[in-house]
Amino acid sequence: MKLLILGSNGQVGHCLAEQAEKKGLEFYATNSSQLDITDYSKVAEVFRQVNPSLVINATAYTNVEKAEDEPEKALEVNSKSVGNLAGLCSKNNVPLIHISTDYVFDGTKDGYYQENDPVNPINSYGKSKLAGEQAVIANTGRYVILRTSWVFGRHGKNFVKTMLNLFKSRDELTVVSDQIGGPTFAGDIASAILRIAEVLESRPDFSDWGIFNFSGKEDVSWFEFAKSIYEASRQKQLITKDVSIKPIPASMFKTKATRPQNSKLDLSKIKNVFDISASDWKSEIDNYIEHYLQ
Ligand SMILES: NC(=O)c1ccc[n+]([C@@H]2O[C@H](COP(=O)([O-])OP(=O)(O)OC[C@H]3O[C@@H](n4cnc5c(N)ncnc54)[C@H](OP(=O)(O)O)[C@@H]3O)[C@@H](O)[C@H]2O)c1
Questions:
Q1: C-alpha 240 – ligand 1 centre gap (Å)
Q2: What is the CATH number of the domain that holds 40?
Q3: Ligand 1 geometric centre to CA of 11 (Å)
Q4: Which part of the chain is the RmlD-like substrate binding domain (predicted)?
């Protein structure tokens, strides 16, 4: 197996390269300064040089707020470039693992989203990611699209880091309590992807190509997530003062992009096909804080 990992500076991409290295896998990883995914001829050149047996795309335009101001840029990275990459994979008969998001849904479903539920993104980022899924499907047949949610890793910006910084600087804060989802540790996404890669490699007759949900459990609101991060950071004495965290509705937290109220993903398909279980975000928060303390 020879992996080409794109986006190795991102939260998930970083973990992918780290874990591939630890497992002794043969891989070639590029970050955005080494390979801009919107530079189609360069992507083709790297593809030729590396000659991978599997491609993992961890690149993305992920700034949900900024995407409202520059939807074209989000589309370029999250869809047009992805279509180009999928086309290269198809031409070379190489499977593609691509990452997508719960934001392809509008969040109005009462219950868990399954992979085949109707999509209806409600912000520019979600629209660009949905267009990316469609570009994969239109350009190649051998793909796994992993839809995940609320990602936090040790590298890069995320909600956990923001909360830890706020706990240090503030005595009181408000957090949205009417949006529910599954926080997902970036390292667990990387493990799931490498497990999928192993299955694809060991089963040349694999035919369950398609979209798969993967997230952390249990699902919580941002407010409940913030409380858990706070409790863990108090317990581990990263934070030694009281911080009052109050719930507010999303309508009171002004943002450019609207976010889905319900992002709960049903995980039975990935369990059945790849034997991958939900990420346990609570224990990863403990590990995260221990790592932070070091
Ligand atoms: N973050 C979340 O909460 C979340 C939730 C659901 C799904 N997802 C999806 O999960 C995947 C991984 O997300 P993440 O949190 O790891 O994102 P991330 O930390 O923002 O990483 C994305 C990486 O893509 C790179 N990139 C952006 N434009 C590029 C370009 N033109 N060429 C090459 N690389 C480019 C970025 O480079 P720079 O380092 O130069 O910026 C960054 O390193 C994405 O597909 C995302 O849509 C994320």
A1: 33
A2: 3.40.50.720
A3: 7
A4: 1-292
